[in-house]
Specification:
Layout: E1 4-7, H1 17-26, H2 28-38, E2 51-56, E3 114-119, H3 121-128, E4 148-156, H4 166-197, H5 201-219, E5 231-238, E6 243-251, H6 258-278, E7 282-289, E8 293-296, H7 298-303, H8 313-326, E9 332-340, H9 346-360, E10 366-372, H10 385-395, E11 399-404, H11 410-418
Parallel strand pairs: 1-3, 6-7, 6-9, 9-10, 10-11
Antiparallel strand pairs: 2-3, 4-5, 7-8
Helix pairs in contact: 4-5, 8-9
Length: 424
């Protein structure tokens, strides 16, 4: 049976925060594995609470230096010894209660000690989404409205006192002072050498007077002169607009059971957390549909209870209207994430594929379709909806379709959809 060690110590005034980050970096593979294995049992709302993780002891092993037992004789001091002297043989402790499992052993097989500690919510989210991204994100420039950003472009002699660059000003001041004083100091040194060997009293008086004037002039060089001052200069440069919108499309028809809706909502909660925590300029549009589609708020998207028949194309008719009104494709990166149980009226499948191929996919950076629940036959409805998306996936590079049967499938599928190319 493995032991569990729980470390609930807090960083004392941040003194060990660097060591903590080193520890997290060293054990990141074990931490990520623990998160992946238990994510289906966790809250993924990003509540701000610390998240406990458990890793095996092998993940925290560190190098140790030990004496070589074969290196010769050694003297060892054992404090508190009252029973033994040199050359006595020490017996092993007897078995019994509190001394281990004894000769009976354990019936649980080979185990490993575990190490538990708390990750802050930020650390948890960073590891969770570390190597994920919205695919095919590109910079798109708004042609109708010019946007500019101020950027550093060297230094200027005049400017706002708040933009004074002290370092550059001091460099200029020191350089100017050296340049102005050096000739005078050299001449003073030369006159002093002449003064030591000169025996003519009148000439000595002249030399001393000249040295006095040169010293006054050398000391008169200001430490900082207005000519030395340099100010940070900024210029306006056109700024490309790298902005994106993600459409959340969820089927809420009567065929979606509570389990189906729970799987879909868990996937969308993970996606919403990912988008909001990893990107600054990404907007979210929430669309629920049954026989009709409507745009709703985030709260309504996850909590409303309306249902009805199933016409999937209605969601993309609504999305097309929203794109036209608010998200022109020359300015926005468009992403779609759709979740459904695969149920759709047969006559709507062709309408759905037509609007996707003509109006949605050509304008979309990435389209992901998630079918929730166990695979089943849809022959009475005109076919399995995921089959239609598999055909589109073969035809378009920006389409991906996946099946999620239970909560354990959500994060692996999510990673597969949004993982950075080249990562595992």
């Amino acid at each position: 049976m493995g032991n569990t060690i729980i470390d609930r110590r807090k960083n004392p005034g941040g003194k060990s925060s660097s060591n903590r980050q080193k520890f997290i970096k060293r054990t990141k593979d074990e931490i990520r594995k623990s998160i992946h294995d238990t994510l289906s049992k966790r809250s993924i709302k990003g509540s701000g609470d610390d998240q406990d993780v458990v890793i095996t002891r092998k993940g925290i092993d560190e190098p140790q230096f030990n004496h070589n037992p074969n290196s010769g004789s050694r003297d060892i001091v054992l404090p508190g010894n009252e029973d033994f002297v040199v050359d006595d043989l020490l017996q092993k402790p007897p078995g019994g209660e509190g001394q281990g499992v004894g000769p009976k052993g354990s019936n649980e097989g080979i185990g490993e000690d575990e190490f538990a500690f708390a990750l802050s919510n930020d650390e948890f989210i960073n590891i969770l989404f570390e190597d994920l991204e919205l695919p095919h994100m590109i910079s798109k420039e708004n042609k109708a409205v010019e946007r500019y950003e101020l950027s550093r472009s060297g230094y200027t002699n005049d400017g706002n006192p708040a933009q004074l660059n002290l370092e550059q000003s001091m460099v200029n001041a020191i350089g100017r002072k050296i340049a102005l004083r050096t000739p005078k100091l050299k001449k003073i040194k030369k006159l002093e050498a002449e003064l030591e060997t000169c025996k003519d009293k009148e000439r000595r008086v002249e030399i001393e007077e000249e040295i006095r004037k040169l010293r006054i002039r050398a000391n008169a060089v200001a430490f900082v002169d207005p000519v030395d001052l340099r100010y940070n200069n900024f210029s306006k440069k056109p700024s490309p607009i790298s902005q994106a919108v993600v459409f959340f499309v969820m089927d809420v028809s009567a065929s979606m059971s509570e389990q189906h809706k729970d799987l879909a909502k868990r996937f969308f909660m993970l996606l919403n957390l990912f988008v909001s925590r990893k990107y600054k300029k990404v907007e979210c549009v929430f669309i629920r549909h049954h026989i009709e589609a409507r745009e709703c708020t985030e709260e309504e998207f996850f909590n409303d209870r309306e249902n009805g028949g199933t016409v999937v194309s209605s969601a993309f008719v609504k999305a097309k209207e929203i794109m036209k009104d608010r998200y022109p494709t020359n300015e926005w990166n468009i992403y779609f994430a759709q979740a459904s149980d695969g149920d759709n009226w047969g006559h709507d499948n062709e309408v759905l594929k037509d609007i996707l191929q003509k109006d949605i996919l050509p304008e979309t950076q990435y389209f992901s379709y998630i079918q929730v629940g166990k695979a089943r036959s849809y022959a009475h409805m005109g076919g399995n909806l995921i089959g239609e998306y598999k055909e589109l996936e073969d035809k378009y590079d920006n389409v991906i379709s996946k099946q999620i049967e239970n909560t354990e499938d959500i994060y692996p599928v999510f990673r597969e959809i949004f993982k950075v190319k080249g990562t595992k």
